[in-house]
Write a structure and sequence with these properties.
Strand order of the largest sheet: 1-2-3
Helix content: 40-55%
Structural class: mainly alpha
Shape: elongated
Radius of gyration: 22 Å
Largest sheet: 3 strands, antiparallel
Number of helices: 12
Length: 272
């Protein structure tokens, strides 16, 4: 694993950069959204271009420029500023393998991303669809889908940006589908006699769906199935710690509490 690379920022794409070292070697590096927004860019910061691309990525059917402008600039924007931002985003994304722009306007006047712009959410949904067919490919597809989950939804987004997410419903959908995939994989592995793998699956979902009680119960059930009490106690401690962080309702769901009572009757004295 490469821990450090220094050099010149040679290229920047939707989810990765190329760093050209002094020795002439170019390293392609995948970077999260929060890092991408802090990287240098010609002219204005890249944050706005990133938000434009994210909005288009979440609307694969395309959007009219006026709709995009209303989402990105809710307080209004001139056509000149909008078009300049779109031009910067087009330059950033570049062209595909046959020279077509990765951000273009279709015949109906809608803005669309090119087919070669990789969008993790779309890849995730495709893998989930493949898993729904069941069979020997289900576990591998679910595992691959969950490998795309690295943390909270849109972690690292700049304050004051992405206001359109509040009325979009995407954040809820992402959390629900990831939690469902993690639950399915955890139960599947548990049924196969792999409690450690079941714990890993539950944790993969909790990286994003941290408040999903069903995943916490999956983790507890899998930890108990290992036969190692210290793992179960550690999982119980995690559930209690997570509950204490909830400022609205600092208590676990009754189903979760009942499960802990069943799996580890002495837990109340051990967690205080």
């Amino acid at each position: 694993m490469i821990a450090h690379v220094s050099g010149r920022l040679a290229a920047k794409r939707a989810d990765r950069v190329v760093v050209q070292t002094a020795g002439g070697v170019g390293y392609e590096i995948v970077v999260p959204l929060g890092v991408m927004e802090q990287l240098p860019a010609p002219g204005e910061p890249v944050a706005l271009a990133t938000e434009l691309v994210v909005f288009l990525a979440t609307h694969p059917g395309g959007v009219h420029p006026n709709v995009l402008a209303a989402a990105i600039w809710p307080r209004g924007v001139t056509r000149e500023v909008r078009d300049a931002a779109l031009a910067r985003a087009q330059d950033w994304l570049g062209t595909d393998d046959i020279g077509r722009p990765q951000l273009a306007t279709d015949a109906s006047g809608r803005l669309r991303l090119g087919s070669q712009v990789r969008v993790d959410w779309q890849v995730f949904c495709a893998l989930l669809a493949r898993a729904e067919g069941g069979g020997s490919d289900e576990e591998a597809a679910l595992e691959q889908a969950l490998s795309l989950v690295s943390g909270p939804f849109m972690d690292g987004r700049a304050p004051g940006r992405y206001a359109w997410l509040a009325g979009d419903g995407l954040e809820y959908e992402v959390a629900a589908r990831i939690a469902d995939a993690a639950h399915r994989l955890s139960r599947l592995r548990l049924a196969q006699g792999d409690p450690d793998g079941a714990m890993d699956a539950a944790r993969a979902g909790l990286r994003l769906a941290f408040d999903d009680e069903l995943l916490w119960r999956d983790l507890l059930t899998a930890a108990h199935a290992t036969g190692q009490e210290h793992l179960l106690r550690a999982a119980v401690a995690e559930v209690c710690a997570r509950t204490s962080l909830d400022e609205v309702l600092p208590r676990m769901a009754p189903e979760t509490e009942a499960l802990i009572d069943e799996l580890l009757p002495s837990w109340r004295s051990s967690v205080g």
